[in-house]
Design brief:
Order of helices and strands: HHHHHHHH
Number of domains: 2
Number of helices: 8
Distance between the termini: 57 Å
Structural class: mainly alpha
Largest sheet: none
Number of strands: 0
Length: 247
Amino acid sequence: MYNDDVLKAPESEAHFWEMVEANFEFARHVLEDYPLETREDAIYGVDENGSPRTEAMEVIAYRKNSVQVIAYRNTSEDYEQRQYCYDLGRAVLPIVRRMIDSRELTQAFVHEWGKLQFCHGYLASLVFDDSDGMAQNRGAAKRAAEMSVDDKRAWVARILARETAAGRMRKEAERVVEDLAKQFRDAGGYGPGYPPDWFADLLKDNGTLKSTYGKGQMPGTSLEARANCVEQELPPLEFHEVQSGPR
């Protein structure tokens, strides 16, 4: 951790190089041990293994721990210097390391040292930045995720209601949903508003319907209300109606 010890004037040449070593390690730690946070990570976060979360609804619970990354800042490209400082700092690190090892206190060393500390200072400020400049974007992502689930539930409810009204058991009706979702997924989706992933997200890895759309969360008594909870046009309830969808 940074402290006032690194600000003291060196008492001797040996002490000078000792302080240089300590400050170099601060810079190396930031440049080599902390990843650049992406825009997607800043909105959705990462899981316990450091991998980006893939479930859209996890944005509800996400709040990033900024001390684990060089934080993404929601600034314009004209002012964004993270990548530049990251690349420059990492390029300078081995040069400065060789100069320290050979104790080269030269003009070249001062020049390279200045570049390294400039990059380190800029990036370290983002490591300790615990503000949340992506809150508005995260809220929008949350609302979009919730709306997407509502759309899916409405579409699934319409199919289930139709099939159960025709006398099918619930499991049989769910298989109709599964088959229809796979058909649209494999055909490239339905128009620009419903890509293949929209349909794929209805299914588990084994091809069965996710529990979000199962009897536990969507009982038969709720199907009518679910079916009418959205106003926009949804994909058709039969694949052969319009396979490619509106363009």
